[in-house]
Write a structure and sequence with these properties.
It contains 2 helices and 11 strands. By secondary structure, the protein is of the alpha+beta class. The longest helix has 22 residues.
Length: 169
């Protein structure tokens, strides 16, 4: 007579694999990931979220409404906060930095750009009004440019935040 409590090697292997899969799934679900989150400033609707880690950078570029030249603001995630670290522009004019503050440097790029670095200022609430006249573009670590006009719509007020989230589809 066969022992009903004796398990085959196959059954034991299946049980072990199921337990391992359950543990791995729990680890994935319970491990927070960090994202740059873009959402509608009024409704809270999330337009997009992009994996970003502590110490990594992103930038927002646009054509300045007054001097009609490109302007790029570069940001860094530090201590869970967003810091502006550098601004690149191509012409002086109303609305762009005209003086270098202590700790900042001005250099010139090969393309004629003016690069102000060492800004190192925490931005407690970062938002942009997506351009009516020209588009705003977001660049994250992979270098891919994301049109904020396409993502959010013209004239949208977009809030940027750095958030820890658990498993997200």
């Amino acid at each position: 007579m066969k022992n009903p409590f004796k398990k085959s090697k196959t059954t034991t292997a299946v049980i072990v694999i199921a337990i391992i899969a359950a543990v791995v799934t729990l680890i994935i679900i319970c491990t927070p990931r960090t994202y740059l989150v873009l959402q509608n400033d009024k409704t809270g609707e999330i337009y997009g979220q992009y994996p970003l880690k502590e110490g990594e950078n992103f930038s927002v570029g646009f054509i300045h409404s007054v001097n009609k030249r490109p302007l790029i603001d570069k940001y860094e995630i530090r201590n869970g906060e967003i810091y502006v670290i550098e601004t690149i522009y191509y012409q002086f004019g109303a609305g762009v930095q005209t003086e270098i503050e202590p700790g900042q440097t001005l250099t010139y790029g090969e393309d004629g750009s003016m690069i102000v670095s060492g800004i190192d200022t925490k931005i407690p609430y970062l938002s942009y009004c997506v351009g009516l006249w020209s588009d705003h573009t977001l660049k994250v670590n992979d270098g891919k440019e994301i049109s904020l006009r396409e993502l959010c719509g013209r004239g949208s007020l977009v809030h940027f935040s750095f958030e820890k989230k658990f498993f997200s589809f």
